[in-house]
Amino acid sequence: MRLAWDPTDEAFREELRAFIDAHCPPQARVGKDFLGGDDEIIPDWAREWQATLFDHGWMIPGYPPELGGRNATPVQTLIYLEELARQGIPRSVHFGGYAIVGPSLLEFGNDEQKAMAPAAIRGDTVWCVGMSEPDAGSDLANLQTRAVLDGDSFIVNGQKVWTSYATVAQKCFCYVRTNPNVPKHKGISVLIIDLDTPGVDVRPLRQISGGSEFAEVFFTDVVVPASNLVGELDNGWRITMGSLAHERGGLWVEGVFGCQRAVEGLVALAERRGLAGDPAVRRRLAAAYERVATLKALGYKGFAGFAQGSSAPEHSYMKLATAELRRELFELGMDLQGPFGAVVEPAFTEERARWQQGFFVGLAANIGGGTSEIQRNTVATRVLGLPKG
Ligand SMILES: Cc1cc2nc3c(=O)[nH]c(=O)nc-3n(C[C@H](O)[C@H](O)[C@H](O)COP(=O)(O)OP(=O)(O)OC[C@H]3O[C@@H](n4cnc5c(N)ncnc54)[C@H](O)[C@@H]3O)c2cc1C
Hints:
Layout: H1 7-23, H2 44-55, H3 74-87, H4 95-108, H5 111-114, H6 117-122, E1 127-130, E2 146-150, E3 153-160, E4 171-177, E5 188-194, E6 200-205, E7 214-225, E8 229-230, H7 236-242, H8 253-272, H9 279-307, H10 313-335, H11 354-365, H12 372-383
Parallel strand pairs: 1-4
Antiparallel strand pairs: 2-3, 3-7, 4-5, 5-8, 6-7
The protein binds flavin-adenine dinucleotide (FAD).
Flavin-adenine dinucleotide binds next to strand 1 and helix 12.
């Protein structure tokens, strides 16, 4: 494996760095590591930043310019993800639109729906993704929200939960059951539901971090035009499997570099608190550094295979490993503060409760996008080839 970038790719990185220096708002530099307590769910700076990225071809670099990109190669896309993650800069504070909905509309939608993709990726239209229900999280195929075709419309009844950004979204990319009489993953469809349709009730949920980015969404006899069906009827399962393809090889990057930033921050924190010479602290920091370095090497190894068209089993492990490491690192940040680690009031803590808030966010990272237990099952069965338990 060659661990150097070629000059064209280095030039690409330099161009990106210059763009970030010129355009990135200061608020983006403390980005989403430290969510929590912010009542403005999508602040103005985040909307403007996302639109600026899109307009300069830096939103999804692998896409063509009209979709917010610059036809970048997979290696350049990796460099892009790495550079943003290294600096801790988010592309958007609401990822559903550009990461899930936009790509899915482009891949599965009809012409009218494809035309909605640029606004989803630029963030002009805010989308939420309605997958989870009270009994359908890890077991997504168990979803029960019903959509019954009645002439030119579907009539939708049911409930979603943990729907990020539903309180500020205009549209929901909603997974519904259209056929209860077939094996459960075969009777699911995707509907575009305007959230201001009569019968839709969005109720915010308050999180442990103090923020409220989630909501429950209730549907009571909601009339949705049949033309809002995305893809084929009863074939929505394919769409759950199909999104994120444009940067699949780089999904691990944010996790690993987020951990790297955390380790750098921990070293600074230990020095500030006079703990850098403490053998127990040194051991924990060195172990953390070692784990980050190992994960980074594993990520690049997987990417090298991915870029040559083979599958990257290493990457199945990365979400699990980085989510768990991240939580441990932020916990260490609380430990290093001594008794103040138990306080969440920004004024009385190190770095405005960065470590406390990051710990809470880290709890969510072990659940969202697939829990750690489910990731372990995936590694066991699909990577190691063990029998299903
Ligand atoms: C920050 C965040 C944002 C989210 N945003 C969205 C969103 O925008 N839209 C959306 O639809 N959903 C969203 N979710 C929901 C998320 O997808 C679900 O919480 C997740 O899929 C887990 O499902 P669950 O909560 O129903 O837990 P369950 O599936 O009930 O799991 C409970 C526990 O049992 C374990 N478990 C379950 N099944 C198995 C098994 N077969 N083997 C071993 N262990 C098992 C789980 O790992 C977990 O520890 C979000 C969640 C978070 C944390």
